[in-house]
């Protein structure tokens, strides 16, 4: 079987790339190890930058996001018993939309299926061949058969555990990594929102975040030991912890609901540079990971796809290779900006075991500054909405 662009992974990066290429008349096949049900139900983050919304709209998959997502013009930072608002729209002219990643996935899968796009689920034993030639191929097993997909380009959108990144020789690649000694305990619950806007809270017991999914489904998180197990956390214990960390801030009150999902995520910052080798290009989590604090993960994946779509289009339409050659360099500028922002926000908001009283006061001083100085608040806001200069 032959296609122009072989895409490994049906996350936001792989699906969006496939659909944008289709709209430009470029053929692709998407291979995914999981089932459609699995990718459509995996719970991830839910904040979309303006640029992400724009690209989804351009791809023709923005209707449900616009109808069901919630536009937020600011968020709150809670610390030292206070609540201070970051006025995203007032400071930057931009806002964000809260809309779950798996809803984006559902919209993209529906668009690919409606366009008769080639999408293979349940693929195993994927391997890449000839990526340093101009005839690369992907071998895999699907429904009991050995298959080979010949293509012009292979795009690795298969996340941090996928086969793609490992196909770039280690000697040509440098990995940058920071692992944080804490994780996030996430819950989904049925109930009304606790707040009109997201609340990021710094508390001596640890960080907490009040987010939302809809008028009757809420998303909340609290800092935990990454090795802890959800089985150790009864609903009562979870609510007690959220109340302790959030309610101490000036009139804020977490509204209890019926918890129907619990998970623990580890926190890591990671960048692979380069993001390309021969005819292989990496996008999204395959190349970089951010801790969830700045809500940048999916937005970075979408930003990679924007650069890659333009580069592939220039190749097929104008026979140009310059944009492909500079893909990694172009994408990495935005990636490193987001790496710094999410690391900075994580470091400012979390309880760090072993931190001295001096270091704790520095966190507070930084929070005071970003919530008092218009210049500092603007720097935070433009990073959050995704328009910081790179
Ligand atoms: C979420 O709603 O899942 C969410 C929101 C903001 C973050 C991270 C996650 O920074």
Summarize the structure in short.
The chain has about 400 residues and is an alpha+beta fold.
Q: Strands, helices and their partners?
A:
Elements: E1 5-8, H1 12-23, E2 28-31, H2 36-41, E3 47-48, H3 50-58, H4 63-68, E4 70-72, E5 75-79, E6 82-86, H5 88-92, E7 96-98, H6 101-114, E8 118-120, E9 124-129, E10 137-142, E11 145-150, E12 153-156, E13 174-190, E14 199-201, E15 208-212, E16 217-224, H7 235-246, E17 258-273, E18 276-277, E19 280-282, E20 288-289, H8 297-318, H9 322-325, H10 327-349, H11 357-370, H12 374-385
Parallel strand pairs: 1-2, 1-12, 2-8, 5-14, 12-19
Antiparallel strand pairs: 3-7, 4-7, 5-6, 9-10, 10-11, 13-16, 13-17, 14-15, 15-16, 17-20, 18-19
Helix pairs in contact: 1-6, 1-8, 8-10
Bound molecules: P-hydroxybenzoic acid (PHB).
Domain FAD-binding: 2-341
Keywords: FAD, Flavoprotein, Oxidoreductase
Protein name: 4-hydroxybenzoate 3-monooxygenase
């Amino acid at each position: 079987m032959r296609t122009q662009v072989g895409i490994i992974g049906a996350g936001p990066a792989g699906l969006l790339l496939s659909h944008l290429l289709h709209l430009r008349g470029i053929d692709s096949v998407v291979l995914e190890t999981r089932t459609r049900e699995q990718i459509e139900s995996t719970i991830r983050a839910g904040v979309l930058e303006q640029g992400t919304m724009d690209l989804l709209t351009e791809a023709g998959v923005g209707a449900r996001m616009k109808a069901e997502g919630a536009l937020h013009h600011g968020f709150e930072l809670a610390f030292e018993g206070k609540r201070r608002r970051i006025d995203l729209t007032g400071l930057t002219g931009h806002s964000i939309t809260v809309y779950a990643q798996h809803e984006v996935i559902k919209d993209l899968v529906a668009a690919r299926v409606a366009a008769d796009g080639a999408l293979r689920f349940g693929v195993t034993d994927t391997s890449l061949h000839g990526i340093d030639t101009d005839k690369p191929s992907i071998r895999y097993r699907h429904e009991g058969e050995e298959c080979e997909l010949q293509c012009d380009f292979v795009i690795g959108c298969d996340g941090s555990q996928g086969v793609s990144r490992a196909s770039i020789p280690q000697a040509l690649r440098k990995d940058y990594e920071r692992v944080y000694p804490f994780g996030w305990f996430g819950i989904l619950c049925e109930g009304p929102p606790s707040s009109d806007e997201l609340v990021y809270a710094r508390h001596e017991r640890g960080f907490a975040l009040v987010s939302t999914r809809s008028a009757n489904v809420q998303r909340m998180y609290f800092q935990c030991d990454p090795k802890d197990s959800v089985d150790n956390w009864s609903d009562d214990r979870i609510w007690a912890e959220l109340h302790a960390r959030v309610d101490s801030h000036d009139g804020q009150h977490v509204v209890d609901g019926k918890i129907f999902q619990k998970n623990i995520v580890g926190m890591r910052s990671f960048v692979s540079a380069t993001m390309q080798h021969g005819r292989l290009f990496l996008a999204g989590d395959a190349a970089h990971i951010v801790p969830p604090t700045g809500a940048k993960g999916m937005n970075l994946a979408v930003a990679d796809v924007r650069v890659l779509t333009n580069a592939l289009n220039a190749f097929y339409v104008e026979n140009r290779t310059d944009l492909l050659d500079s893909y990694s360099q172009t994408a990495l500028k935005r990636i490193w900006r987001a790496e710094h922002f999410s690391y900075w926000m994580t470091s400012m908001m979390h309880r760090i075991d072993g931190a001295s009283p001096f270091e704790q006061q520095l966190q507070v001083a930084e929070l005071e500054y970003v919530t008092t100085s218009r210049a500092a608040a603007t720097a935070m806001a433009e990073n959050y909405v995704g328009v910081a200069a790179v």
